[in-house]
């Protein structure tokens, strides 16, 4: 798909801005979204293309988007062949984007379109990557906030890569960062980490994140967990080191305990009646052992996914890419 979009692209002049919006069952939000996005485009100081990436929606999102794309020259649509997940959907959108600056934002209006103007202003100050930082989050349960903050603290301690706290995928990236991103073919995609990894001049724009007013979250707890695990696995080797250290510590303990048992036996201190301690120690060790194997398994699984070299996503249909931009109204 990369080639085909790129081929089309050489014929059409590139816009200044590309907006990338991942969509997964968002039919309740779309008309409101299109309104707000259109208002935003009118305020941006250059031609803007809007790339909707349908991530295998099962509701009426696709038919609505197709109609929108047919009517509005600056809209484009990538339909993925199934649900590949948020991180892959934004990857597909960014790979197809041809703007000088590319902005990724959620479709549910929790990333307010107006904030894009602030991102753009910072970009013009010379920052290659401008991320939007949540200073307040409305309508989120304490559980979500608590687990999120725990996760970011943990990740911060575990990885040498600078991954800013309270930052999702709402960000603007310039051409250089985008080209770098395209050269990162990894399957375990934790996009916010990937942008942290690449360096460049980065800046934050604070914003208050409103609650989702239309539709409901497409990130149930298990998806969140998976994202968190992918984030840790692809940006930290600390779990492997911890497995090694724990193994070492337990071995040292076992050695000392064995020594003690032998000495006690030689001195005939009558220590045989130890069924409880045996059971406790054996089950504890088996538990730790399995856990460590699981940690290693996660990494092996990640290597396995990488080695297969499957494409990251499959495009079922593209629309709107093969036409010139509308002439800017200003
Ligand atoms: N999304 C997606 N694929 C998925 C899940 C979500 O493309 O498998 C999109 C979704 O439509 C939305 C964005 O990713 O535009 C963020 O999802 P959501 O708002 O549900 O996440 P939350 O804000 O609750 O973390
Ligand atoms: Mg949301």
From TrEMBL:
Keyword entries, A-Z: Cell membrane, Glycosyltransferase, Membrane, Transferase, Transmembrane, Transmembrane helix
Compartment(s) of residence: Cell membrane
Coiled-coil annotated spans: none
One CC-aspect GO term: plasma membrane
Domain (Glycosyltransferase 2-like): residue spans on this chain: 18-179
Gene Ontology MF terms in the entry: glycosyltransferase activity
TM segment ranges: 242-267, 279-300
Entry membrane topology: Multi-pass membrane protein
CDD domains on file: DPM1_like_bac (cd04187)
Keyword Oxidoreductase attributed: no
Annotated InterPro entries: Glyco_trans_2-like, Glycosyltransferase_2, Nucleotide-diphossugar_trans
Family (UniProt): Belongs to the glycosyltransferase 2 family. GtrB subfamily.
PANTHER family according to UniProt: PROPHAGE BACTOPRENOL GLUCOSYL TRANSFERASE HOMOLOG, UNDECAPRENYL-PHOSPHATE 4-DEOXY-4-FORMAMIDO-L-ARABINOSE TRANSFERASE-RELATED
Protein name: Glycosyltransferase
């Amino acid at each position: 798909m990369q080639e085909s979009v790129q081929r089309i692209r050489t014929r059409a002049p590139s816009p200044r801005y590309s907006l990338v919006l991942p969509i997964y069952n968002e039919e309740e939000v779309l008309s409101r979204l299109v309104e707000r996005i259109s208002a935003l485009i009118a305020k941006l100081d250059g031609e803007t293309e809007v790339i909707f990436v349908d991530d295998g929606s099962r509701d009426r999102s696709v038919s609505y988007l197709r109609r929108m794309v047919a009517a509005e020259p600056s809209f484009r649509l990538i339909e993925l062949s199934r649900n590949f997940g948020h991180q892959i959907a934004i990857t597909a959108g960014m790979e197809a984007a041809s703007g000088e600056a590319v902005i990724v934002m959620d479709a549910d209006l929790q990333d307010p379109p107006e904030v894009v103007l602030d991102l753009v202003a910072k970009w013009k100050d010379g920052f290659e990557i401008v991320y939007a930082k949540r200073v307040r989050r409305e309508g989120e349960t304490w559980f979500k906030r608590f687990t999120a903050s725990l996760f970011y603290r943990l990740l911060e301690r575990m990885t040498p890569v600078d991954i800013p706290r309270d930052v999702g995928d709402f960000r603007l990236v310039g051409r250089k960062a985008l080209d770098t991103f395209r050269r990162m073919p990894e399957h375990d995609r934790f996009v916010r980490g990937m942008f942290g990894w690449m360096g460049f001049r980065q800046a934050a724009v604070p914003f208050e994140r409103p609650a989702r007013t239309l539709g409901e979250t497409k990130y149930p707890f298990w998806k969140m967990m998976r994202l968190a695990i992918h984030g840790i696995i692809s940006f930290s080797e600390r779990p492997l080191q911890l497995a090694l250290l724990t193994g070492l510590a337990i071995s040292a303990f076992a050695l000392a305990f064995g020594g003690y048992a032998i000495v006690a036996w030689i001195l005939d201190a009558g220590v045989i009646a130890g069924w409880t301690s045996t059971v406790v120690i054996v089950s504890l060790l088996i538990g730790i052992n399995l856990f460590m194997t699981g940690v290693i398994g996660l990494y092996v699984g990640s290597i396995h996914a990488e080695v297969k070299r499957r494409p990251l996503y499959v495009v079922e249909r593209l629309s709107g890419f093969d036409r010139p931009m509308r002439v800017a109204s200003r």
